[in-house]
Amino acid sequence: MNLIGRQQLRRQVLVGDATKLFKRSFWTWLNSVFNIVDHERIKEVGPDRAAAEWLLRCGAAVRFKSFDKWHKDYNHLPTGPPDRLYIEAIDGTDSCIYSRGFDYLDGLQYVLWLRFHRCMYLSDTCLERLATIDSMVASLQHLEVKSCGNVTNRGISALHTLRNLQSLILFDLPGIKNQGMLVQTLNKSLPSCTITLDPGC
């Protein structure tokens, strides 16, 4: 390859790298915007409706108490008095939720089921925050954390406060080490919980 060809190739590589960096920065910024907590909105429509709006903005799905269907479309959330709309289940699969928005979960008193699957922004900080939300500690019965690369033993260990948890599924978590000791610790704190751990963790 001659000098001109090498220079052209180098320019293409630099432009490609700059484009990737811009896209990554843009999506990081956008996700950050989606996760900003609007406390005025919570006061206006109640914690469940505000949390549902946040979750759907971030690509998650919710199921309300007394509803059979999952809601995934922000524009088709059910209407009605805030005191009659309660989130019962959250599916965060492929969503961009992260710790900054977890204040939206504060006050949700009826969440029984929660899934984090391929959540690239989910971290130990998120799980630690979840484990300190009184309403979630009291209600949550089923939790799945799957294919979330930023979760380590620290985040999973924090779940020991979820006293009503009956089922905990952990799968494809490369950050988990010493799984036997981790399960033993959780079993002591959560004797009524069935813990399913992927051997590959």
UniProtKB/TrEMBL annotation:
Gene3D superfamilies: Ribonuclease Inhibitor. It comes from Eptatretus burgeri (Inshore hagfish). InterPro entries: LRR_dom_sf. SUPFAM superfamilies: RNI-like. This is Distal membrane arm assembly component 2 like. It comes from the Eukaryota.
